[in-house]
Design goal:
The chain is α+β, with helices and mostly antiparallel strands and 389 residues long. The chain contains 14 helices and 12 strands. Helix 4 packs antiparallel against helix 9 and helix 7 packs across helix 10.
């Protein structure tokens, strides 16, 4: 009961220090010292086999996602484990090395990813020896990274981690949404907000929206033009077009671009991923001039019906910044369940990356990007995102 109340407190405020809540609920034990081994997740077959066995693995752990990160941004992935070479992996934590002259040198698990759970022994007791071994691995890695000269390390778990090394500090709080697809289709629709979602779906159906999907460069181009304008509206540059091309190449049919057309014009688009039993919404954009026609709710309703017909139990709607109440409200109105997600760092960084994120820099950058031509927006994305994540 105490843990439930604590979680509700975190959710209601969004910025409470989860570290103190977790420590109050359970005092972490002293991590064990264990030998740590490096694994190349792009070439070691054991990594993919481990992910296939592990219930906590996600698309962000996958070789395809890591290949796209490396090809686009130059982030080199590496996984750490206590399992000796030649044996099946029983745990693993994957990071990317991000080395930038602008924002510093850091280890992130993982950049440009909504979450990336540290993976313990899938067959072990989550509160017993396997969990202790995983926490010992994390604790030792934090110390090793510091000695190697990395400015900071960041972990992005989706769950409230049961035990945390005492060195970790909260870095950023997000709101995560997921939709339970085990309910009947009629119940899923009735749970949606009547005015903001249900009526807009009906409006889109009356207007004769046309649906297309695929992952060709042509349909990616349709998405990217809408995406660039949406990012401009928010005062942000778009991710490089190369990023989306690389995702389409590495993920294959597991990635789909979905577009709603009205009178031959693209008015809304989303990108979805499939990994094992989860459908994942990753990117979305729309033409604000046609928002009243309901193209975006209509696309999500099609997505929900498709995922439901395939027997998938969950729609992962990803993270939202607590400072973006509009996006949070939209996901709430789809009938999704929200919960807090915290990213953790060691030590607390005080470098260029955080200075760029403060209020004044954000305001100045937003003014610039809101009025920049599309070509300059795209060029800014290609330049800046290699230093972010």
């Amino acid at each position: 009961m105490r843990a439930v109340l604590d979680e509700r407190r975190i959710e209601s405020h969004g910025v409470l220090d989860q570290l103190e809540v977790l420590r109050a609920a359970k005092t972490p034990s002293r991590p064990r010292t264990a030998r740590i081994y490096k694994v190349d997740p792009l070439t070691d077959r054991r990594w993919t086999e481990f992910l296939d066995r592990h219930p906590g693995s996600s698309v962000y752990h996958s070789r395809a996602w890591l290949e796209a990160l490396k090809s686009t941004y130059g982030c080199t992935p590496v996984a750490y484990t206590t399992t000796p070479p030649g044996l099946d992996l029983r745990n693993g934590v994957v990071f990317c090395r991000v080395e930038s002259w602008l924002t510093g040198k850091r280890m992130v698990s993982l950049p440009f990813s909504d979450h990336c759970e540290p993976l313990g022994d899938p067959l072990g007791d989550p509160w017993g020896e396997g969990e202790e071994e995983l926490q010992g691995l994390i604790g030792n890695l934090l110390k090793d990274f510091r000695q190697e000269g990395w400015e900071y390390t960041e972990l992005r778990p989706r769950s409230l981690m049961a035990r945390l090394p005492r060195w970790l500090v909260p870095a950023k709080h997000y709101c995560f949404h997921s939709l339970d697809l085990s309910r009947r289709l009629e119940d899923l629709r009735s749970a949606m907000h009547k005015d903001c979602i249900q009526r807009k779906i009906k409006r889109a159906e009356r207007e004769g929206m046309v649906y297309r999907e695929g992952r060709s460069p042509e349909i990616l181009g349709v998405f990217y033009r809408l995406f660039t304008e949406t990012r401009r509206k928010h005062g942000l540059p778009p991710q490089p077009f190369k990023w989306f091309l690389n995702l389409a190449d590495t993920l294959g049919p597991a990635m789909q671009v979905r577009v709603a057309f009205y009178s031959g014009r693209p008015v809304a688009s989303i990108i979805t991923l499939i990994h094992r039993s989860a459908m994942i919404y990753k990117y979305g954009c729309s033409d604000a001039r046609f928002a009243k026609l309901g193209g975006t709710p209509w696309l999500f309703w099609r997505l929900i019906r498709e995922a439901k017909s395939w027997g998938l139990p969950e729609l992962d709607l990803g993270r939202s910044d607590w400072e973006n109440p509009g996006l949070i409200a939209f996901k709430d109105r789809l009938g999704a369940r929200r919960r807090p997600v915290t990213y953790w760092r060691f030590p607390e960084p005080r470098g260029v990356a955080d200075n760029l994120a403060n209020g004044r820099w954000q305001w100045l950058a937003g003014k610039f990007f809101a009025h920049a031509p599309a070509s300059l927006l795209a060029a800014s994305g290609r330049l800046l995102y290699r230093h972010m994540g």
